[in-house]
């Protein structure tokens, strides 16, 4: 009798056949098990993988990711996705060949109700998981009670440093740090971004101006922190800037007014068509009213967005907004209550769930001040560590 074919008999050297030979995989019962850790990264959540456990072919890799999270189903009932954008973020980590980095990572964004996989930007929030994950997987050696991890974000070609708490020679997730949008306390993870900024589009202010008027609305476009954001005053579109997430999620009139402006900004900075993309991401700003530096709402206006306001605030959006707020001539600079003339100071964003505080370092050049570093305190927690299983038949 002829032996029945097994998954490992699938024709190699096809990408699928090659990948199924990976020793770390577990193949049984029509499923492929892939080593995976699920993390809460600040106010986001998603699986974190070693690149060596995933297919090298990006099309097959995306098939595996889609099968694992099941975003095409709105409730993602047949996958580990969280049925909202903030819970559909994927991180892929590998040792870095670069002399100035310990690890590289690729960020993928999925959207409930869609089968698209976007490899644009960083996700500062979800990227908080990279440092602890890299230490736990042995990619970075512990260096004491705190271990700095030098990270290269492949999507945006940016370097940053993450300070991981490692007392007793191991990562700890327990601590007294808290962030709005997450209950309880955890160990702090300090993430610091330094120049050069503007790596995605080629300039910190990619239109060449610190302020443009698009569709009759003054806007500032910023490329920093691994994302491109479009900042506008709330009152320029008849809003207060203090609306709740629920109010903004149902505000179709705002979406209809803002989306044409966002698409035109995309064209201005060289993007072909941003109708289905999240960047440039709109940020609505207003004067602070809770002792912060500025009030802001991070929005999504593209047509298939399931929600139109971030529940808290995106990390990459926070870097963009902070950068714009501390440099003169921008829309945000006019509203930000900086108050300090020091070259190092706190910057607090008031958002729908509370506040996010960043630390700004500025330097004085020959002609004007520039930002030499922006740090943000985040927290993360490992939720599980094991295997995620995907059906073999959807891959072949």
Question: Can you tell me about this structure?
Answer:
This protein has 396 residues and is an alpha+beta fold. It has 2 domains: 7-162 and 382-394, Diaminopimelate Epimerase, Chain A, domain 1 (Roll); 212-364, Diaminopimelate Epimerase, Chain A, domain 1. Helix content is 15%, strand content 33%.
Which class do the helix and strand fractions yield?
alpha+beta
Morphology: globular
Biggest sheet, in brief?
8 strands, mixed, barrel
Number of domains: 2
Helix content: 10-25%
Compute the CA-based radius of gyration: 21 Å
Corresponding CATH architecture of the largest domain: Roll
| Strand line-up across the major sheet | 2-3-4-5-7-8-9-17
Secondary structure layout plus pairing:
Layout: H1 15-19, E1 26-28, E2 31-41, E3 44-50, H2 58-69, E4 89-95, E5 103-110, E6 117-118, H3 124-127, H4 130-136, E7 146-153, E8 158-165, E9 188-193, E10 212-214, E11 217-224, E12 227-233, H5 245-249, H6 252-268, E13 281-286, E14 294-298, H7 315-325, E15 344-351, E16 354-364, E17 369-391
Parallel strand pairs: 3-4, 5-7, 12-13, 14-15
Antiparallel strand pairs: 1-2, 2-3, 2-17, 4-5, 5-6, 7-8, 8-9, 9-17, 10-11, 11-12, 13-14, 15-16, 16-17
């Amino acid at each position: 009798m002829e032996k029945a074919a097994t998954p490992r008999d699938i024709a190699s050297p096809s990408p699928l056949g090659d990948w199924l030979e990976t020793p770390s995989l577990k193949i049984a019962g029509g499923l492929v098990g892939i080593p995976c850790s699920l993390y809460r990264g600040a106010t986001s959540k998603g699986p974190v993988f070693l690149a060596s456990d995933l297919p090298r072919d990006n099309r097959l890799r995306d098939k595996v990711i889609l099968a694992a999270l099941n975003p095409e189903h709105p409730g993602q009932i047949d996958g580990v996705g969280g049925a909202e954008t903030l819970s559909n973020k994927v991180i892929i980590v590998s040792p870095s060949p670069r002399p100035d980095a310990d690890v590289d990572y690729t960020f993928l964004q999925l959207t409930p109700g869609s089968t698209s996989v976007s490899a644009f930007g960083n996700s500062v929030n979800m990227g908080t998981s990279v440092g602890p994950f890299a230490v736990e997987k042995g990619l970075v050696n512990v260096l004491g009670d705190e271990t700095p991890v030098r990270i290269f974000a492949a999507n945006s070609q940016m370097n940053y440093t993450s300070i991981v708490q490692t007392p007793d020679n191991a990562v700890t997730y327990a601590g007294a740090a808290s962030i709005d949008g997450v209950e309880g306390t955890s160990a702090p993870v300090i993430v610091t971004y330094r120049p050069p900024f503007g790596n995605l589009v080629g300039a910190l202010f990619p239109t060449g101006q610190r302020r443009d008027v698009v569709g009759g609305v003054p806007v500032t476009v910023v490329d920093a922190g691994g994302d491109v954001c479009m900042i506008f005053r709330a009152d320029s579109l008849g809003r207060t800037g203090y609306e709740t997430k629920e109010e903004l999620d149902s505000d179709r009139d705002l979406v209809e007014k803002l989306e044409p402006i966002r698409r035109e900004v995309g064209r201005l900075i060289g993007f072909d068509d941003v109708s289905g993309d999240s960047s440039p991401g709109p940020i609505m700003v207003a004067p602070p009213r809770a002792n912060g530096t500025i009030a802001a709402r991070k929005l999504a206006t593209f047509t298939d967005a399931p929600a139109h306001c971030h529940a808290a605030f995106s990390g990459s959006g926070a870097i963009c907004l902070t950068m714009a707020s501390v440099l003169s001539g921008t829309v945000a600079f006019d509203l930000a209550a900086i108050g300090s003339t020091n070259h190092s100071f706190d910057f607090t964003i008031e958002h729908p769930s509370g506040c996010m505080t960043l630390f700004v370092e500025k330097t004085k050049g020959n002609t004007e001040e520039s930002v030499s570093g922006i740090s943000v305190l985040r927290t993360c927690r490992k939720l599980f560590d094991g295997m995620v299983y995907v059906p073999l038949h959807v891959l072949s």
